[in-house]
């Protein structure tokens, strides 16, 4: 079995619409080996919509709001 035939593994990226988080999320999506859940405070932002177009699942979450993180994880 090759690596490409393995099922996608899911990874959550916090701050996915920021510079660092966005770069990480995009790089993981480009590999084709990861299902990316992108955490952001504003899922309607341009950066969030761009990640969704690349194939990420964009979810609303805030690191200062425990209940939002519980819903995601």
Give a structural overview.
- There is one protein chain.
- The protein is of the alpha/beta class and 73 residues long.
- It has one domain: NAD(P)-binding Rossmann-like Domain (Rossmann fold), CATH 3.40.50.
- Helix content is 40%, strand content 22%.
- It has 3 helices and 3 strands; from the N terminus they run βαβαβα.
- The chain has helices spanning 19-31, 46-54, 66-72, and strands spanning 9-13, 34-40, 57-60.
- A 3-stranded parallel β-sheet has the order 1-2-3, with helices on one face.
- The model has no long low-confidence stretch (mean pLDDT 93).
Rounded to the nearest angstrom, the distance between the terminal CA atoms is 30 Å
* Order of H and E elements: EHEHEH
Structural class: alpha/beta
Q: What is the CATH topology classification name?
A: Rossmann fold
Q: Low-confidence parts, pLDDT < 50 over ≥5 residues?
A: none
Number of domains: 1
**Assembly level:** single chain
The CATH architecture term is 3-Layer(aba) Sandwich
Helix content: 25-40%
Main CATH class: Alpha Beta
Beta-strand residue fraction = 15-25%
**Tell me, what's the shape?**
globular
- In round numbers, the mean pLDDT is 93
| Biggest sheet: strand arrangement | 1-2-3
CATH superfamily: NAD(P)-binding Rossmann-like Domain
**Whole-angstrom Rg:** 12 Å
Describe this structure in a few short sentences:
This protein has helices at residues 19-31, 46-54, 66-72, and strands spanning 9-13, 34-40, 57-60. The protein is of the alpha/beta class and 73 residues long. The protein has one domain (10-72): NAD(P)-binding Rossmann-like Domain (Rossmann fold), CATH 3.40.50.
